[in-house]
């Protein structure tokens, strides 16, 4: 073939031409090496400026590599934006897959942030952030939209004027508007990859937005993200956000030479981009507008992302009620607010292997009522809610059956559920008659007078039957084991607003218990925390899931939990399709709790 020709509106170069231009792909011409191949500096014949030739690595599955290569050409040949590396042409000959781009002469953002002899000024950093935002907004605004899937400083080239040029489109993918794509294999750079993409395998614009957010925080701090357990840089900025100390993380090499409002703007936008719930991340269009001067609430005061300012949920297309998503309260205010928040334990969630069998056992042996049952075939699970009264006023169990899963590991950390009955012996006789398992016959508790018994349900969950008179809350306890009781009590008091109802040490049997709750034990469900002397860790298994607690404001709840050392596992916001606002967290021992908006919960029950 000739040295070059036009094919489907893209240049096709001959292999001989590119071989000569790279001096037989000489090492002296190599300017980069990545996971998918090497990049060479080349001088094309009759070409005034040098170009970069990307040589795709030869792999065993050449057919798949060729498909990916064709996909990259198909997508990038249609892109044209001042902040994207321009595509020049390609070559597919002699078993080689080659791509030709303009050569951007001034290195990468990664090089200038971390390895150059001179410090990258703040003015240039801000300019680079603006350019990246513009490029990604252009890609996401295409029809179909284009997802980069590997946004990181090493893929941001800089020209002589330090204009950003986003490059390396090896993982690029087109996705129709309002759709996601779920490839089987996870690709990307671990320091910048969206954790929700890792857990689901599904990509969307929110995946690029997360990566962009990490890069913004790296631009501000000059630190390389670490990912030993989560993203260390992201967690660092989150901690500083809640202590009103965001500027403490600014790159010290700048020696204070930066525009404070711009710096806060970049950090705040970065934090909004890396929210765990991808539905709460702003669109790139909104993100670009904010960087170019759009209103970020109280950008002069880093801990105020107030209702009238940036609303991550609203920007992402969420409901206006999500506008409170970024509202932050101080520690003194948090203490008072938790005391006033209307909270109660709603339900306890755990997994079972035979839902109908368990329902039958609970209704016939334990006297519960089946309150509602819902099947979610698209998610391959079914829920059943059982209890001793309506969900709007009673603590209930939520059983979850996952299609095809017949058994679970309960582990050693979960203890038991407690049920108050008027006659323990009579209840035990009924359970025996129905073929149930009794692990402790009725009798006084050790060292006390209360009559108790222990039974097991069909899945092996233990229930303590406690003899009491009539009570408004028969399902009265959830017992969990912890490694540091005082630490746990402190957390549940401050983060969850629970009261320490009583604490009892039993040195003879080497354990201590603490009863925590939102009201007296005889009228409310409570959490029983048990510490066994000398035992710091337990196996939690995969059977027990979580407790759900009501709240007036999931956003403030999440703030308070963070302030007191809890880990937010789901950022506050509405559930897709249901619109019930929730947030989820883990305590210091790793026990999970979900907080549910009071008003939304009642609306859900009415539907």
TrEMBL record:
<keyword id="KW-0677">Repeat</keyword>
<dbReference type="Pfam" id="PF00069">
    <property type="entry name" value="Pkinase"/>
</dbReference>
<keyword id="KW-1003">Cell membrane</keyword>
<dbReference type="InterPro" id="IPR037523">
    <property type="entry name" value="VOC_core"/>
</dbReference>
<feature type="active site" description="Proton donor/acceptor">
    <location>
        <position position="464"/>
    </location>
</feature>
<feature type="domain" description="Protein kinase">
    <location>
        <begin position="25"/>
        <end position="281"/>
    </location>
</feature>
<dbReference type="Pfam" id="PF00903">
    <property type="entry name" value="Glyoxalase"/>
</dbReference>
<comment type="similarity">
    <text>In the C-terminal section; belongs to the protein kinase superfamily. Ser/Thr protein kinase family.</text>
</comment>
<feature type="binding site">
    <location>
        <position position="464"/>
    </location>
    <ligand>
        <name>Zn(2+)</name>
    </ligand>
</feature>
<feature type="domain" description="VOC">
    <location>
        <begin position="344"/>
        <end position="468"/>
    </location>
</feature>
<keyword id="KW-0325">Glycoprotein</keyword>
<keyword id="KW-0732">Signal</keyword>
<dbReference type="GO" id="GO:0004462">
    <property type="term" value="F:lactoylglutathione lyase activity"/>
</dbReference>
<dbReference type="GO" id="GO:0004672">
    <property type="term" value="F:protein kinase activity"/>
</dbReference>
<keyword id="KW-0479">Metal-binding</keyword>
<dbReference type="GO" id="GO:0005886">
    <property type="term" value="C:plasma membrane"/>
</dbReference>
<dbReference type="GO" id="GO:0005737">
    <property type="term" value="C:cytoplasm"/>
</dbReference>
<feature type="binding site">
    <location>
        <position position="54"/>
    </location>
    <ligand>
        <name>ATP</name>
    </ligand>
</feature>
<feature type="binding site">
    <location>
        <position position="398"/>
    </location>
    <ligand>
        <name>Zn(2+)</name>
    </ligand>
</feature>
<dbReference type="InterPro" id="IPR008271">
    <property type="entry name" value="Ser/Thr_kinase_AS"/>
</dbReference>
<feature type="domain" description="VOC">
    <location>
        <begin position="474"/>
        <end position="598"/>
    </location>
</feature>
<keyword id="KW-0675">Receptor</keyword>
<keyword id="KW-0862">Zinc</keyword>
<keyword id="KW-0418">Kinase</keyword>
<comment type="similarity">
    <text>In the N-terminal section; belongs to the leguminous lectin family.</text>
</comment>
<feature type="binding site">
    <location>
        <position position="416"/>
    </location>
    <ligand>
        <name>Zn(2+)</name>
    </ligand>
</feature>
<protein>
    <recommendedName>
        <fullName>lactoylglutathione lyase</fullName>
        <ecNumber>4.4.1.5</ecNumber>
    </recommendedName>
</protein>
<keyword id="KW-1133">Transmembrane helix</keyword>
<dbReference type="InterPro" id="IPR004361">
    <property type="entry name" value="Glyoxalase_1"/>
</dbReference>
<dbReference type="InterPro" id="IPR004360">
    <property type="entry name" value="Glyas_Fos-R_dOase_dom"/>
</dbReference>
<dbReference type="GO" id="GO:0046872">
    <property type="term" value="F:metal ion binding"/>
</dbReference>
<dbReference type="InterPro" id="IPR017441">
    <property type="entry name" value="Protein_kinase_ATP_BS"/>
</dbReference>
<dbReference type="InterPro" id="IPR000719">
    <property type="entry name" value="Prot_kinase_dom"/>
</dbReference>
<dbReference type="InterPro" id="IPR011009">
    <property type="entry name" value="Kinase-like_dom_sf"/>
</dbReference>
<keyword id="KW-0456">Lyase</keyword>
<dbReference type="GO" id="GO:0019243">
    <property type="term" value="P:methylglyoxal catabolic process to D-lactate via S-lactoyl-glutathione"/>
</dbReference>
<dbReference type="InterPro" id="IPR029068">
    <property type="entry name" value="Glyas_Bleomycin-R_OHBP_Dase"/>
</dbReference>
<keyword id="KW-0547">Nucleotide-binding</keyword>
<keyword id="KW-0812">Transmembrane</keyword>
<keyword id="KW-0067">ATP-binding</keyword>
<keyword id="KW-0472">Membrane</keyword>
<dbReference type="InterPro" id="IPR018146">
    <property type="entry name" value="Glyoxalase_1_CS"/>
</dbReference>
């Amino acid at each position: 073939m000739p040295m070059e020709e036009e094919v489907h509106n893209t240049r096709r170069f001959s292999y001989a031409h590119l071989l000569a231009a790279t001096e037989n792909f000489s090492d002296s011409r190599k300017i980069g090496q990545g996971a998918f191949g090497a990049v060479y500096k080349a001088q094309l014949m009759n070409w005034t400026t040098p170009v970069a030739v990307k040589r795709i690595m030869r792999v065993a599955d050449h057919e798949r590599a060729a498909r990916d290569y064709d996909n990259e050409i198909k997508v990038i040949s249609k892109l044209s934006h001042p902040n994207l590396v321009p595509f020049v042409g390609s070559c597919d000959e002699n078993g080689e897959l080659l791509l030709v781009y303009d050569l951007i002469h001034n290195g990468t953002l990664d090089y200038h942030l971390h390895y150059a002899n001179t410090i990258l000024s703040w003015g240039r950093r801000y300019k680079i952030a603006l350019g990246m935002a513009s490029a990604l907004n252009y890609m996401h605004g295409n029809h179909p939209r284009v997802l980069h899937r590997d946004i990181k400083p090493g893929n941001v080239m800089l020209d002589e004027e330090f204009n950003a040029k986003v490059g390396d489109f090896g993982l690029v993918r087109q996705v129709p508007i309002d759709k996601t794509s779920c490839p089987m294999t996870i690709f990307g750079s671990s320091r910048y990859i969206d954790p929700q993409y890792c857990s689901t395998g599904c990509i969307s614009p929110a995946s690029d937005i997360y990566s962009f957010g990490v890069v913004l925080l790296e631009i501000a701090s000059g630190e390389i993200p670490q990912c030993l357990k989560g993203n260390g840089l992201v967690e660092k900025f989150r901690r500083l956000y809640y202590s009103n100390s965001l500027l403490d993380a600014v790159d010290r090499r700048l020696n204070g030479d930066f525009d404070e409002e711009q710096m806060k703007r970049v950090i705040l936008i970065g934090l909004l981009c890396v929210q765990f719930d991808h539905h709460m991340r702003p669109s790139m269009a909104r993100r670009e507008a904010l960087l170019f001067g759009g209103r970020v609430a109280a950008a002069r005061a880093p801990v105020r992302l107030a209702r009238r300012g940036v609303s991550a949920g609203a920007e992402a297309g969420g409901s206006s009620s999500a506008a409170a998503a970024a509202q932050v309260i101080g520690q003194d205010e948090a203490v008072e607010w938790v005391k006033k928040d209307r909270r109660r334990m709603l339900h306890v969630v755990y997994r079972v292997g035979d839902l109908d069998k368990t329902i039958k056992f609970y209704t016939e042996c334990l006297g519960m009522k089946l309150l509602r049952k819902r099947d979610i075939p698209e998610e391959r699970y079914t829920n059943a809610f059982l209890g001793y009264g309506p969900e709007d006023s009673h603590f209930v169990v939520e059983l979850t059956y996952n299609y095809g899963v017949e058994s679970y590991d309960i582990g050693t950390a979960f203890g038991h559920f407690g049920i108050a009955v008027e006659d323990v012996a009579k209840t035990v006789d009924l359970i025996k008659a129905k073929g149930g398992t009794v692990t402790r016959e009725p009798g006084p508790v050790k060292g006390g007078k209360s009559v108790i018994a222990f039974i097991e349900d069909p899945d092996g969950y233990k229930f303590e039957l406690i003899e009491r008179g009539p009570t408004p809350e028969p399902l009265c306890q959830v017992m969990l084991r912890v490694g540091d009781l005082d630490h746990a009590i402190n957390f549940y008091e401050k983060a969850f607003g629970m009261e320490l109802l009583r604490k009892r040490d039993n040195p003879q049997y080497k354990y201590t218990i603490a009863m925590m709750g939102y009201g007296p034990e005889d009228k409310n469900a409570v959490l029983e925390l048990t510490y066994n002397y000398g035992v710091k860790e337990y196996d939690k298994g995969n059977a027990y899931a979580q407790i759900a607690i009501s709240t007036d404001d999931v956003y403030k709840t999440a703030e308070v939990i963070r302030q007191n050392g809890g880990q937010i596992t789901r950022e506050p916001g509405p559930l897709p399709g249901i619109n019930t606002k929730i947030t989820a967290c883990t305590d210091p021992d790793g026990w999970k709790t979900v907080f549910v908006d009071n008003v939304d919960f009642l609306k859900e029950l009415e539907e």
